[in-house]
Q: What sequence folds into this?
């Protein structure tokens, strides 16, 4: 048997073990959510970190590559962390609901979801970036749309409850001189309706994020192309999905921030160095794509975006500046000072 086949079988075995362990359920948080532990038994390789527990609301955790790696490669375990992931958290609304009702201690959200809540007083601190946004805007090759400004007065379709996607592309459109509220006709659809609507010219563009958008793009690449996204320019090195922690939990558990951030960064680094293995780990969960398609997607995306400390707050300040462009925060608000207040500095 060649080395590659051995590697694949080993990874698949570990993935099946992970899924089997995920079937062990118990009640957590007292709020009616059933939570599960993903338990490993490897020795704590870091040694200096005491055992600690945390509950995280992680949207679509079952298909999240970084979370899968953190568990299968024992990065949480190595830093003494007993991580409980709330199940059935499929979107930011459910994650926010769990977070606000103390059903979890931390959650993963787009910064575009974090900022409106933090700006209105949510008691949380941002700890570490999880990944870039992987947003894509797709248009038909027949449409003769070559630039974002060509979308003026045309229809852009999104999935329902796609606030962060719309907000992201509103920023891009505003930078190109368009008013996203006046110059764009936004349409909400079920995700299955997006591609047919685009191909029939019912709408002139569709927006979303991976893996869904990459699946559409890879399956219809002869008919559509990516006009804009978060893979290029200043966005290519910026985190979009960020893990934040409840302030009260931090007061009671001040030592958990460092090992949690480091375990996330280790997982992100491992993924960057093992894209092929990552694609195999994910293939049995992402039913719409095989491992080859997933690998192509991972290679197209920007990897290892897990900022902390100064790098994180500088990126948050950039997002606040962009909120000013859209009129969502006052121009006299100090972006730098506000970003520092929102982010949790740690010593590594």
A:
């Amino acid at each position: 048997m060649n080395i590659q086949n051995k590697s694949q079988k080993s990874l698949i075995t570990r993935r099946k073990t992970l899924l089997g362990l995920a079937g062990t359920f118990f009640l957590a948080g007292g709020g009616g959510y059933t939570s599960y532990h993903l338990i490993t038994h490897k020795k704590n390789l870091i040694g200096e970190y005491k055992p600690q527990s945390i509950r995280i609301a992680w949207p679509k955790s079952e298909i999240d590559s970084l979370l899968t790696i953190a568990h299968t490669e024992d990065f949480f375990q190595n830093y003494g962390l007993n991580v409980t992931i709330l199940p059935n958290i499929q979107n930011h609304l459910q994650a926010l609901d769990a977070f606000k009702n103390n059903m979890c201690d931390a959650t993963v959200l787009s910064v575009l979801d974090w900022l409106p809540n933090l700006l209105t007083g949510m008691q949380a601190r941002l700890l570490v970036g999880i990944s870039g946004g992987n947003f894509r805007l797709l248009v038909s090759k027949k449409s003769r749309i070559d630039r974002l400004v060509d979308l003026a007065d045309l229809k852009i379709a999104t999935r329902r409850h796609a606030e962060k996607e719309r907000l992201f592309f509103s920023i891009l459109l505003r930078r190109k001189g368009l008013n996203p509220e006046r110059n764009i006709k936004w349409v909400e659809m079920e995700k299955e309706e997006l591609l047919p609507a685009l191909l029939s010219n019912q709408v002139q563009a569709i927006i979303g994020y991976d893996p869904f958008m990459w699946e559409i793009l890879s399956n219809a690449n002869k008919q559509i192309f990516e006009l804009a996204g978060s893979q290029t320019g200043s966005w290519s090195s910026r985190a979009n999905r960020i893990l934040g922690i409840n302030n009260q939990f931090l007061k009671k558990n001040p030592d958990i921030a460092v090992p949690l951030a480091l375990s996330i960064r280790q997982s992100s680094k491992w993924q960057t160095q093992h894209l092929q293995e990552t694609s195999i780990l994910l293939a049995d969960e992402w039913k719409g794509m095989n491992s080859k398609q997933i690998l192509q997607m991972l290679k197209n995306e920007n990897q290892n975006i897990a900022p902390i400390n100064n790098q994180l707050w500088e990126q948050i300040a950039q997002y606040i500046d962009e909120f000013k462009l859209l009129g969502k925060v006052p121009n006299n608000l100090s972006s730098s000072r506000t970003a520092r207040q929102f982010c949790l500095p740690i010593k590594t």
Observations:
- The radius of gyration is 20 Å.
- The chain has two domains: 3-133+238-342, 135-229.
- The CA atoms of residues 27 and 34 lie 5 Å apart.
- Residues 3-21 form the longest helix (19 residues).
